[in-house]
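For reproducibility, we list the full input for the adenosine-5'-triphosphate complex.
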Amino acid sequence: MLKIKALFSKKKPDQADLSQGSKKALKGKTRSNGTTNKDVSEDNSFPKKRHQDRNVMHYSNTIADDHHMKSLTDELVTTIDSDSSPSDNITTENIETVTSVPAIDVHESNDDEVSYDPLMSDESLPIQSETISDIPYGDTDDENLEDETPEKSFLEQKELIGYRLINKIGEGAFSKVFRAIPAKNSSNEFLTKNYKAVAIKVIKKADLSSINGDHRKKDKGKDSTKTSSRDQVLKEVALHKTVSADCSQIVAFIDFQETNSYYYIIQELLTGGEIFGEIVRLTYFSEDLSRHVIKQLALAVKHMHSLGVVHRDIKPENLLFEPIEFTPSVKQKFRKSDDPQTKADEGIFTPDIGGGGIGVVKLADFGLSKQIFSKNTKTPCGTVGYTAPEVVKDEHYSMKVDMWGIGCVLYTMLCGFPPFYDEKIDTLTEKISRGEYTFLKPWWDEISPGAKNAVVKLLELEPSKRYDIDQLLDDPWLNSYDCLPKERESSQKKAGTSERRHMHKNNSNYSKRTPRYCFHQPQLLCVTHLILVTQSSVLKKIVWGPVGAWAPFLKTKSLKIITMVAQKMNHWNKTCSN
Ligand SMILES: Nc1ncnc2c1ncn2[C@@H]1O[C@H](COP(=O)(O)OP(=O)(O)OP(=O)(O)O)[C@@H](O)[C@H]1O
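The corresponding predicted structure, in tokenized form, follows.
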């Protein structure tokens, strides 16, 4: 089955992902463009709206009634079924009728396009007919002028209604992500109450059809490809909208527009960027900071699983965060494997707030998410290094694949390199299918048995023995705090599940020792960056068609990564020769 969603998500092996993510981290982040963290779902005031531009279709943000949801669901299920290859095991027995997926209200404004909202009355909708060019730029406060002045004139701006693109903040394989502001004097101005700025993922339709290399689709002709890509985007949006409602650990969905040339997914802006970049910056996270991230991720996954939705692409690149003020350590603590010259200070961890500049963490990117309605699904997807063995082995899998992904993230945060890596995709696949990973010395020497136990329970080969999300949330390590006095810790534990929502502090109790080890260089995160930077042809050997399809589109990695790797290798070489 061709998962077109995978094409949107430039799915790639883990280290390819790492390289991609670090590119952004290394070029630095803008952490000053604040937005409130208020969940959009709290605001019921989104108006139903339409505009009369014949070139633009508007998708209102309202939740449709059951009838509408059923018709969209039927359409999506049809899409899934018609998109399946014989090897897929998604049957109608496995798929119950979706009643929880809110439909996207699609309003016809172009005669060539289809309307999906038979129940929406025109009279009930305020008219939104302004275009961005109608909106004056000069009505901003002086202090906000810089934040609100577009960096340049973006092509993508032309067809976008009610938002002003300010600057590009990210790029996927088939999308660009912009920081934008709800335009003043537009019907979106009310959004500024909750969102000073938003993130807009722009997918160019032409790019989707040009990269859709699935031979089955080609056989069906261009139109079916176009329809399938569109359905896939609508499905991603519908799932994003569903799962982000009432969950503050998931990036909020705000709005969606489709125009002649683009899809625009408007979402909450997380100004810190990806957790991945922070792992590269800090080399690894302390146990308390790792907990801080995993707890929030676990709550997001708990919410998704309770809705029957599996994310299927949990990785550090898909965890975004809001920055917090950094408080330097009074005396920086090092692990014995650290290079004191280059190890960045994580700073002081503040309970309920975070540390290392990382505050609120939210799960993003629902391009591979799927609503499953029974235990099993069997669609190959995901990012190779973080993929569960049952997926690699092409067996049935379920929600437990997300638990494996959490295990990979936890492992990576704790030590700074992923649990499974091999230059050769075939060998990597083998390692994953055997669950072959180790707590490598010296990097894992100072990591607590509790943390290791959590990793072991998450990276359990047999899905039925692997932690489920509730077991993870009850894990003793996840609910203990290195930084807190024991009395406070036990009282926090007694407080039960409500405590799960709080963040905890670390004053770091790691011992400071001088490193004198010969490092296993190829296992290290930064070296794996280098390997993939220089040997990207490896990516073309990816076993899965859907994943292979994006391989040629992977971008050349930043020179800065190579420079950083060279510096680190220089240090390791020196250490080895001592
Ligand atoms: N809501 C957001 N707030 C801040 N940055 C974002 C947001 N959404 C995406 N980004 C940034 O834009 C980049 C690309 O976004 P996204 O991952 O959604 O695109 P994609 O095409 O799905 O990419 P991928 O191929 O990695 O799945 C990400 O690296 C992320 O850093």
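The first strand starts at residue 56 and ends at 60. The domain at 273-478 is CATH 1.10.510.10 (Transferase(Phosphotransferase); domain 1). Both points were considered when choosing residues for closer inspection.
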